[in-house]
Amino acid sequence: MVPGLEHTLLALDQPFVVLWGFRSIKEAFAPPRDGKKVGRRKSHAELWPGVVAEVRRLRREKGKVSRLSYREISARLKDAGYCNERGEQFNPQSVRAMIEGPQERPPRRR
């Protein structure tokens, strides 16, 4: 969708919408159907597939009592030479996001 076009399309008749390649105004504002992400951040799996595989392997590994915590996994990643884009240790919440994958966001309140 062309930015700023929504007001123009609402004022125009149906034939002009067809000129833009859409069959209706509703189709012009609908998200693309090709399944690709549009205008969002890339997931950890897309940015660092090797790190995500290592995180999942470490999560399955047993610690002293039970499985490793996110903080322990983060420390082990740093020791293994994996760090985030700023060169720092991964935040434990980032480790959690790598394991659980993308989460659904609640709708915004208006």
**Major β-sheet profile:** none
Oligomeric state, counting identical vs distinct chains: single chain
On the 0-100 scale, what is the average pLDDT? 77
Structural class estimated from helices and strands = mainly alpha
Count of separate DSSP helical elements: 7
Given the C-alpha coordinates, what overall shape results? elongated
Q: List SSEs in N-to-C order.
A: HHHHHHH
How many β strands by DSSP? 0
Helix content: 40-55%
Indicate how many domains the architecture comprises.
Answer: 2
Structure description:
With 110 residues, the chain is mainly alpha-helical. It folds into 2 domains: 1-31, no CATH class; 44-100. The chain contains 7 helices and no strands. 11% of the residues are buried.
Write the layout of secondary structure elements.
Layout: H1 6-11, H2 14-19, H3 25-29, H4 44-47, H5 49-60, H6 70-79, H7 92-100
Helix pairs in contact: 5-6, 6-7
Can you tag this structure with a few keywords?
7 helices, 2 domains, mainly alpha, 110 residues
